[in-house]
Amino acid sequence: MKRFGLRHVAMLAPAQGLLILLIALPSLYVFWLSFQESSYGRGANFVGLANYAAIWSDRYFWRALVNTLIVINVIVYGELILAFILASIFAKGVPMPRLFMAIILMPYAISEVVAVVTWKYLLDPNAGSLAKALGALGLPEIDWATNPSHGLGLVCLVSIWLHLPFTFMIIHAAMLAVPRELYEAAHIDGAGRWQGFRYVTVPIILPAVFVALIFRYILAFRLFSEVWLLTGGGPARTTEVLAIYLYKQSFTYASFGKGAATAWVMVVISGLIAALYLYLLYRRGFRRDD
Amino acid sequence: MTKISRRNWLHGAAGGALGLAAGPLAGVLPARAQGAVKMTIVSHRVHQQTATEGPAGDVIKGWRDANNAALEWVTLDLNAIHDRVFREAGLGSSEVGVSFVLNTRAVPDIAPLFESLEPYLAKAPIEDFGDLAQGMVRAFTFKGARQGIPYRHAVNAFHYNDAFLKERGLERPPQVIDELLEAARKLTYTRTDGTKVHGFGFQADNYSDVVKLARASGGDFITDDYKCVADQPGMIKALTLLRQMYFEGLIPKNITAMKQNDLITAMQTGQVAMTYFPFGRTVLFNDPKSSKFPGAFKLALPIVSREMAAKGEVIATAEFWSMMIPKNSRHKDLAWSLIRELSTRANTVKTAVNGNGPVRASAYGDPQLMEKVSYAALEAKALRAARAPMPAFNKAAEAKDVFVEEMQASILGLQTPEAAGKNMARRIQPLLAAG
Predict the structure, then answer these.
(1) CB of A205 closer than 8 Å to CB of A174
(2) pTM of the model
(3) Does domain A61-241 have CATH number 1.10.3720.10?
(4) Which residue from B minimizes the CA distance to A256?
(5) Is A256 on the interface with B (CB under 8 A)?
(6) Which of residues 390-419 of B touch A (CB under 8 A)?
(7) How would CATH label the architecture of B155-317+392-433?
């Protein structure tokens, strides 16, 4: 067996060094900052847990947290269901598969800002072409600017549209890797389509599903541009999510300590969510039956 | 013979490449392009526009050529500018040379981030410094040191699309607050080309327009001695009026999500008939390149109450922008040179012709300005009566957010105007006490 020596450490050092410099050290700095009172033009002043206490007692923080949890669950599971459906269709075979694959992947190539602004103008109640088309069809108006539910709903729609390609690729690749013989064996044993999906496809692709879920939860938790560019967190701060709350504390109110505390609260919550799915991944996916 | 493995080859190639690159770089001084010196300016779009575009042309082209300078304008929305300005100023060093700061953010807390301009003024003074609005200079003076040079005042006017007024049989725009509702009703209609026009629009992500309506109703937001009077009848009347106009469909439905540029576009495309904006915006509204109604937009003084109209009183709100040099800037001398250039008497007039609000008293007596800027006399009249919509204090950004939140909730019917006013006073007064 090869020993892990200095040469191996040297090989790993650049990557590890980058991770430490760009992620670990700034994270530790932000953690330290969360116990300080700090703003522009002023030095840091230690205040203990005061920032965390301030956030804990701030109703806007709780509203942002609830909004975030609702939105990320709608996004993640909505995306998962759509990705499953699309991946199943592709796994069975579609005409012109490359063209349709490109169409599905296209949103991922578009900048988030461009995509959100485009949707915003399409659904502008005064002049948006999509808004007018919905009105012409007799469908109810999407009151995203003034109704918080509609606003957050549109945020979910735009986010799913933008990030569906990511989940789709993971699920699709996992489905393609399922051995055909298993389906044949199941068919011989009398399994129908749904049973084949339930007892063959799902168990085998489950680790990939968990990986997709973990990534999407972590990324969705940081949701910012969709909300900021559509509603700005309004009206009356009713569609604010945690990332916007953090932005306001840090950069609008220049309260760096509270912003840092919010950031670490977000890290802990998203870490707990990720830990749950990592545990499930370990139990259902990668654990060897020894 | 030793076989060269792929690993050894890669190691050798990487080492060789590093060695080749290190040679030429080894003795090289910090890289400076052979070409222009690049300096960043953080500002609102209007500052760039008035300095480089418009009827008077590019005011600073000569300066750029003479100094071999390339300016990178980072233009942002009103709320985002100061986030960026202060973040940049807090770094170790920055390419930002000139930062444009609004008067409401000129609080003592930010002073340590910016250069004192006293040494620069002593070494290379600004032409006829006394001609600059000294009140604006004082607002940016901290502990006796001047730190900002005013560039633009944004005294507000009442803009209206005269073509729409004529279409609807109105001879003049509303002049008193009692007339606004009726005028907005008449001007809310669908034109023959299908354009849905709303009678009135305002910046619902800010406080300035609502404060004007409150003052026209005999009220205010925050007095000059730092008392929040949003719970008084004047502000309640303004909120009630806006709420009524919103529920009658006289204001765009998505007004709470519209930014300043969205409102400008709405005026230019005919979706809104009347609004408040700085005087100079009329240049943009009437710009044939971007407006569907060039030449149709006219100006009036902001609406007042009947009692004020009878006395000939004028209400105007004005905020102003000053140019500051961050302490961490790498281009301080170049920045000061640009500030001096923009502040000359001649260039103050030229930027005013481009739509800027001039900060020199002499500008309104300049024949070129009076000839080329049709609204100059009206603007001078408004400027004489202008007051900031909110005084400067440390927690101004939070106070603004509280105001906008409560105001939007009132307009959308989530709470009554009375509750909104009470909440504003309750939540904002402690922020004033904080400094």
Answers:
(1) yes
(2) 0.85
(3) yes
(4) B87
(5) no
(6) 395, 397-398, 401, 404-406, 408-409, 412, 414
(7) 3-Layer(aba) Sandwich (3.40)
